[in-house]
Amino acid sequence: MPLSYNEYYNERTGLTVGVDRLLFSEQSEFQQVEVYETDTWGNLMTIDGMVMLSEKDEFVYHEMLSHVGMFALPDPQKVLVIGGGDGGTAREVLRHDSVRRVDMVEIDETVVRASKEFLPEVGDWKNPKLNVLFEDGIKFVQNIEEPYDVIIIDGSDPVGPAEGLFKKDFIQACYDGLAENGILTAQTESPWVQGYHSSMNRVFTALDAIYEVSKMYLAFIPLYPAGMWSFAYASKGIEPKDGEVIERVKSGMNRFGSHLRYYNEEIHSGCFALPNFVKDII
C-alpha cells in the first residue's frame, strides 16, 4: 500500500494526499470506487482515480451546489438530484423546510453503499423525504412527467457515465423537466485545468441558448484540481441576486445558518464575481 494517493490532472502535476490505509475498493459495472483513510482529510472517496470528496472539505461543494439554487425559489417542494451518491447534496437540500420530496437518481449503487459505510456523516439517508433511485440520470430526465422545482446535477468529471451530463440534449431535457420558475444548478469543473475548458464552454453555451438566466459561480475546495471550482446556475427567469432572493437567504441563515460552514449571504452574492480568465473560458 503506497503512503500517498496521487491524482494527476496535467501530466505530472496534481494532488498528493497522505494515506494510512485503503478502506474500500470495488470495480462496479460503471467505474472503480475507492475509499481511503487519510492522514489529514478524514476518509476520501475516489472514482476512477479522481477525488470525489473528503470528510473534511465536502461541506464546501455540497453547500454551494445546493443552496445557491434552493434559495432562488420561495417555496421549493420537489427536487431532483442527478448523481450525488455520497448523499451530501440531498442532505443540504433537505435543510429547507418547504421540501416535500427529493429524488436522488444515482447510476451506481456501489457509490451509495460505500458512502453509507465509510462516509456515514455525509448523507441524511434515513430522512423519509429522500427517495433513492438506481437509474441512469440521463434517461431519467427524458421521461419526467411531473416537473421539479429544482434540478441539481451532482455528477463526476465529464468522462465515463457522467460524460452525457455535459451535453446540450441533456441540458434541454432538464429545462423541459422543470416547473415554470424552475432552477438548475450543476458542477462544471475547475477553470484552472485546461482539459476541462471545452466541456465548460459547451455547457455554458448550451445554458445560454436554452435558459432565460445563465450564470457561472465559484467556490474553493482544497482537494479538487487547483482548488477553484465552478458551478452553473440557470433558471427560467429568476436572477440569483434579486432582492427577494437575498431576503430569502437572510431568512434561511436565521433558520439553519449555524449548521453551515461555507455558504452565507455574502458568499451567495460574491460567488458570481468571476476573474477575467474564467470569463474568457465561457
From TrEMBL:
GO BP terms in the entry: spermidine biosynthetic process
Q: Pathway listed for it?
A: Amine and polyamine biosynthesis; spermidine biosynthesis; spermidine from putrescine: step 1/1
Q: Name one Pfam family in it.
A: Spermine_synth
Q: What CDD domains is this protein classified in?
A: AdoMet_MTases
Q: Which GO terms describe its cellular component?
A: cytosol
- What EC class does the entry list? transferase
Instruction: Specify the domain of life of the species encoding this protein.
Output: Bacteria
Q: Which residues form a coiled coil?
A: none
PROSITE patterns the UniProt entry points to: PABS_1, PABS_2
Q: Where does S-methyl-5'-thioadenosine bind?
A: Q31, E106, D136, G137, P161
Residues at the active site: D154
Residues annotated as binding spermidine are: H62, D86
Reactions it catalyzes:
S-adenosyl 3-(methylsulfanyl)propylamine + putrescine = S-methyl-5'-thioadenosine + spermidine + H(+)
Q: Which InterPro entries match?
A: PABS, PABS_CS, SAM-dependent_MTases_sf, Spermi_synthase, Spermidine_synt_N, Spermidine_synt_N_sf
* Gene Ontology molecular function: any one: spermidine synthase activity
**Keyword annotations from UniProtKB, A to Z:** Polyamine biosynthesis, Spermidine biosynthesis, Transferase
Could you tell me which residue ranges the PABS domain spans? 2-236
Record-listed E.C. numbers: 2.5.1.16
Assembly, per entry: Homodimer or homotetramer.
So what does this one do? Answer: Catalyzes the irreversible transfer of a propylamine group from the amino donor S-adenosylmethioninamine (decarboxy-AdoMet) to putrescine (1,4-diaminobutane) to yield spermidine.
The family annotation for this protein states: Belongs to the spermidine/spermine synthase family.
This one is known as Polyamine aminopropyltransferase
The gene is speE
